[in-house]
Amino acid sequence: MSELKIPSAHNGYLMAEWHFYASGPDKINEKKLWTTGTDAEKKLITDKIQTALAWQQQTGIPTWVGAWMPGNYNKGNTYSVEEQTVFAGFMTKALSDAGIPFAVNADTKYYNAAENTWISSMQPVFKTIFQ
Fold this sequence. Notes:
This protein has three helices and five strands. The chain is an alpha/beta fold. The protein has one domain: TIM Barrel (Alpha-Beta Barrel).
């Protein structure tokens, strides 16, 4: 991040977008490991948040997390709804407590636009994120 060239000719507002867990957690990748939400797994998330906050403090540029997923939907969705709910609960709380806005990268997992209906099996995850 120290080598990032911040554009000086912007429209008077600049915001940094962070992506972590954009393709969801992983049960084997040590960089985004999440199994049961151990202290070490939670620390992976809070360390990333602390990096974003430190950078924001240093530069004065507000940040947000532009994408994260509660499940590994791109890799077969091997997380149960309950596991996704636990992950989503921690991620949502950690980001909210830090004052960092975020976007969830998986709207089609919660809402069927073609049928104009909510996907009932995913409501526990949805409700956890948007409580």
